[in-house]
Design goal:
The protein is α+β, with helices and mostly antiparallel strands. The protein contains 15 helices and eleven strands.
C-alpha cells in the first residue's frame, strides 16, 4: 500500500510537471466529485434570466457539473490554466475593431495540446482519460477554483494571484486516484469594485453575477439583433469585451510586463464587410459564431462602423450596401449605423 501511495504521489507530481513543461501557466488537481454549488448557481441564474439564450454549461447543469458524466470511472481532474498574453491594443485607430485577448488566436488549441500531453502520461501508466476545454461538458471555472488555481472575481472570471484573469481553462478527467488539492485560494478582490463600476453596460449586477442580457461579450456572440440600447456602448468591439479584466488591479501589473500584440491582431471592420462567407469562417472559425452564420460578424462590423467618429466616405459607402439588404438583421443594423454616421 505504501508503494502504491508513493507511485500515485509521484504520478500526480509528474502530471503537474508535464503540464507546465508543455505550456500551461498553472496546474492543479482536484477530485471528480460533483460541483453541487456550481449546479445550484447555474440553475438559479438560468431561472432569473441572467443566462439569456446562452447554452454552454447552462444547457444541462446536471451534466456540466458531474465529471462522471464525462468519464464514468472518474476520480480526479487535472486542471490547467493557459495564459493569453495578448491584451488589446490601446484604443485601435477609429474605424478598426477590437478583439478580446482570448480570441486573438486559437488559444484553446494550445490548451488542449498541453492537456493531451498530461493525458498521454496518464494513459501510459494504464489510466483512462478525457480532455475537456471550452466545452459545455464541464464547469471549468468551478474546477479551477477547487483545484486551487485562483478565486472567483467580482467580474465572474477566475483570478490567479498577482496575475489576474488573462487565462483559459481546461481539464483532464481521469480515473487515476491522484493526490488532490486540499486548500482554496482566498478571495483577493477585497473591497475593490472597479469591474462593477466601470462595466460599459452595467452587466455585473452584483459581485460575481453577470447578466448576459447586458454583457457585451455575449451581445456580440448572440444570434439575431443587438438591442439598440447597447449598440453605442459596444464602441469598436468586434468580438468580446475585456473591460472588466483591463480595469482589474490584480491583472494590471502582469499586463505591464507584456508588449502589446501586433496591430494585425485587430480587424478592420471595412475589410471584414468585404470578405466572403468562406473567408470569414476560414479566418475566424475558431470563434463562437452564432449559428455558424457570418452575418453575425457583419452585424458587429456595422455597429463598429456606426460608432466610428472617423470621417471616411468609404465607411458610408460600405454601410449603404446593407441598407436594403434582404436580411432583416443586417438591414436594421445598417440603418442604425447610417443614422449614427449622419450625426457626425
Amino acid at each position: 500500500m505504501e508503494k502504491l501511495n508513493q507511485d500515485i504521489e509521484q504520478l500526480s507530481m509528474r502530471c503537474i510537471q508535464v503540464g507546465t513543461e508543455t505550456g500551461l501557466s498553472a496546474v492543479g488537481i482536484t477530485t471528480a466529485e460533483p460541483f453541487t454549488e456550481a449546479k445550484k448557481v447555474l440553475e438559479e441564474r438560468k431561472e432569473a434570466g441572467y443566462a439569456a439564450d446562452m447554452q454552454f454549461t447552462y444547457r444541462n447543469p446536471e451534466r456540466s457539473t458531474t465529471p462522471t458524466r464525462i468519464l464514468p470511472e472518474a476520480q480526479s481532474l487535472v486542471v490547467g490554466a493557459l495564459h493569453t498574453p495578448a491584451p488589446r491594443l490601446p484604443e485601435s485607430s477609429e474605424g478598426d475593431s477590437r478583439i478580446s485577448a482570448y480570441a486573438r488566436k486559437d488559444y484553446y488549441s494550445d490548451l488542449r495540446n498541453s492537456l493531451n500531453s498530461v493525458a498521454e502520461l496518464l494513459e501510459s501508466e494504464g489510466w483512462k482519460t478525457k480532455v475537456v476545454a471550452d466545452d459545455n461538458a464541464l464547469v471549468d471555472r468551478a474546477a479551477a477554483i477547487r483545484a486551487g488555481l485562483g478565486w472567483m472575481g467580482k467580474n465572474s472570471n477566475i483570478l490567479l494571484p498577482k496575475k489576474g484573469s488573462w487565462f483559459v481553462f481546461g481539464s483532464v478527467v481521469t480515473n487515476a486516484p491522484l493526490i488532490t488539492n486540499e486548500s482554496v485560494i482566498e478571495d483577493g478582490c477585497e473591497k475593490c469594485t472597479r469591474c462593477i463600476d466601470l462595466c460599459p453596460t452595467g452587466a455585473i449586477v452584483e459581485p460575481g453575477v453577470v447578466d448576459a442580457r447586458r454583457c457585451i461579450a455575449w451581445l456580440v456572440q448572440a444570434p439575431g439583433s443587438i438591442p439598440e440600447e447597447f449598440r453605442t456602448a459596444i464602441g469598436n468591439r468586434m468580438y468580446g469585451c475585456d473591460e472588466c479584466q483591463e480595469v482589474c488591479p490584480v491583472g494590471r501589473q502582469e499586463r505591464r510586463k507584456e508588449k502589446f500584440s501586433d496591430p494585425s491582431a485587430d480587424v478592420s471592420a471595412l475589410e471584414l464587410l468585404s470578405c466572403t462567407d468562406e473567408e470569414l469562417l476560414d479566418r475566424y472559425g475558431h470563434w463562437y459564431i452564432a449559428e455558424r452564420d457570418p452575418k453575425h460578424l457583419r452585424r458587429n462590423a456595422l455597429v463598429v462602423l456606426g460608432n466610428s467618429k472617423k470621417e471616411d466616405l468609404n465607411i458610408e459607402k460600405e454601410i449603404a450596401k446593407y441598407l436594403l439588404d434582404p436580411d432583416r438583421v443586417l438591414k436594421d443594423h445598417a440603418q442604425w449605423a447610417y443614422k449614427q454616421r449622419s450625426n457626425l
